[in-house]
Amino acid sequence: MPSSLKKWFLTAYRTHKNKGANPMSENRKYYYLKLKENFFTSEKMVILESMQDGLLYSNLLLKMYLMSLKYNGILMLNDRLPHTPQTIATFTRHQIGTVERAIKVFMEFSLVEILTDGAFYMTDIQLLIGQSSTEGERKKKERMRLQRQNLLSSGEVDKCPPYSRGDICPPEIRDKRLDIRDKSIESEAIPSTHAYGQYQNVFLSDAELAELQSELPTLWQTYVDRLSLYMASTGKQYASHAATIRRWAAEDRQKSSPQTRNRDYSVQEGETV
Predict the structure, then answer these.
(1) What is the pTM of this model?
(2) Are 177 and 219 found together in one domain?
(3) Which domain covers residue 177, as residue numbers?
(4) Residue 48 falls within a domain, yes or no?
(5) In a 10 Å sphere around its CB, with 0-12 CB exposed, 13-18 middle and 19+ buried, how is residue 246 labelled?
(6) Tens-digit pLDDT profile for residues 15-51
(7) Residue 181 and residue 117 share a domain
(8) What letter would DSSP give residue 74?
(9) What is the DSSP secondary-structure string of 206-261?
């Protein structure tokens, strides 16, 4: 392991140890990937995995997605230092040559972009990112428990168990449950959105707006108006307005941060790691 990377690992370990992180913290936030069932059968992934070393590239792509979750799609070692091909190779346990070749392929497939400071950005991460917290999961389980309790008290669960055969369940109850299920599926699949911005052309769901307000408490309205004006003046459209705002914010943060990609972290003679 290069001495510079070893020095970074030791510093990160000591910082984490001193913090005394509590794994049961109610405020801890977890990030995860939301992959569609056709992710590996999509055109890009089929072509990618059919290449020489394609299965390695596929594995590396997923690991890079996971590494970028905490920073909204940007591969960062911490708040100031972007990942390099060498550090990506170290963290993903791939050869440096494999990483360098894969990144070129990812760029050709528009899966990765290089920002102005040289940091790598996973272009479609906002369509795959998910997040939750221990507190959120606890509340979700409690809501499910209360809903179940209400159903039991009304007697409907006993009349028509969820795994009973259709000819046993009374038609009026079965039809009602199917109607509730279909409405629930529709509401989850197509979350309602509201129009925002100066020209009322930026569409965000309640959840997306809440997340942006949390991530950009003093800037979210500025980015909404900026996106609204840009789309109205150029006619350009975006698949996800929330993802576009996050990307612009990430790029602006990178532009304002010091250039650190080419900094020399080697250990000089007489220094200790």
Answers:
(1) 0.44
(2) no
(3) 133-189
(4) yes
(5) buried
(6) 555 544 444 444 555 667 778 888 889 888 999 999 9
(7) no
(8) B
(9) HHHHHHHHHHSTTTHHHHHHHHHHHHHHH----S-HHHHHHHHHHHHHHHHS---T
